[in-house]
Amino acid sequence: MVAKTGVVDLGSHGGKFTWFQKSNITGGVFRLKRARLDKALASIDWRMLHPNAITQVLSSATSDHRPILLDMDGGVNCRRTQFKYELMWGHDPKCFWVVKNAWKDRLHHNPMLNFYCKLKKTRDQLSIWNKVHFKMLGHQLGDSSGEFSIRSTCRIVNGGGSVIQAEHRWKRIWKSTLHPRLKLLWWQLERDAFQTRGKLAGFMEITNDSCPVCGEEKETIFHLLWQCTIAKAIWFNSPLGIRVDRVSVWDWKQWQEWFLDDCNRPPNISFEDILIVALCVVEAVWRERNSIVHGQTRSQISQLISRVNCKIQEHKYVASNDIEDFCAWSPPPARRFHKFCKNFKNWEIGHVPRNCNFMAHNIAKWARQFRVTGLIRSTELDKSVLDDYVEWKKHAVFFMAS
Ligand SMILES: [Zn+2]
Question: Which of 1, 21, 47, 344 is the most buried (most CB within 10 A)?
């Protein structure tokens, strides 16, 4: 009757059934009858006007019916898991037949309700099929524990052991002795995380995707690291003296494979040594590229090379772990002062306050102002420079000279 009139059930919140009856069967065994006798119905137009309306099933102590209350906004609080169509279903040919079977019958004479009923049936049939067909997904994905996990899925999607390879890759980064900043750059390289024009062009409209530094090729991070004119100059002028043109690699993966091979590295040079140069090149060229993009002046190539070479030295020093940490002041060895002083025949200790210790400071100041270097005879110096109690000032010399 309800189906024929073309009205829809508003659904309920707070309980499935509104009527209960307990009947006594023989031997003290009870049977419970229950049904959803009370419901709210509405026309499709009304339903579309009030999509959040729902009936609340209230509790009752005295009646076998539970009262229902029409709540116009109660639907927003419903937390039932929503049906979601899984993309993987479409890859299974059986999915087509599940949908076709659910869709084939006419379920209502009203076309709108027929459409609604078919959608609902498709949803139910797909949910059941999903449970039956994919229930042992973990086993199908080959996880030893039988549990479904992102890791096992990733392993299958990437065709086997690449998760382990990837883990090995990240472990190599974090366990290396490089400076944390270089590690971060290395990680960014592995993830292709630099927002180069070539990368941005993949998902947004860019009028120019060429390298801002040389303008010769499409800008990728590998180009900036290896193929760009600045990068080539730095590699050649680095302590390794590598000629980029002699090494035929076309991406970061090939680059690593090439230099991980002992035969391809200069003697006594480790992969980490080459990596330090690569990361310093990336850092320098990326900075230069950014300043060009933001309209600042270009650095001179010679300055850039010497700056990068300094950095390479510093990072090699950090990676060698041969650094002594001075974290706190410690007193000199005991009796050292006494040992020095006993070499003198006559000696006494005097206190020189800081503000009466100008002589050394004065000489340095004088030498700097007159740009004097090398050996200086004391006769060349003005008396006031050698005064230990007064700070020497340049204008005072001019005053005396005049
Ligand atoms: Zn370039």
Answer: 47
Cα–Cα distance measured from residue 45 to residue 383, given in angstroms and rounded to the nearest whole number = 107
Residue ending a domain, among 38, 71, 104, is: 71
Q: Which domain holds residue 43?
A: 7-71
Distance 178 CA to ligand 1 centre (A): 27
78 is a domain residue: no
3-class state of residue 15 by DSSP = coil
CA distance 260 to 270: 9
Q: How far is the CA of 216 from the centre of ligand 1 (A)?
A: 6
- Same domain? For 171 and 267 the reply is yes
pLDDT range class, residue 399, cuts 50, 70, 90: very low
- What is the CA angle 314-317-322, rounded to 5? 150
pLDDT tens, residue by residue, 106-142: 888 888 888 988 998 999 888 888 887 776 554 555 5
> Average per-residue pLDDT in the chain?
81
Specify the amino acid at residue 26.
T
Q: For 4-37, how does the pLDDT look when each residue is reduced to its tens digit (9 = 90+)?
A: 787 888 888 888 888 888 777 666 666 778 888 8
386 touches 380 (CB < 8 A): no
Tokens of 183: 């590690």
CA distance 13 to 75: 8
Q: How far is the centre of ligand 1, averaged over its atoms, from the C-alpha of 274 (Å)?
A: 21
Question: Is the CB of residue 118 less than 8 Å from the CB of residue 128?
Answer: no
Instruction: Give me the residues near ligand 1 (ion), CB cutoff below 5 Å.
Output: 211, 213-214, 228
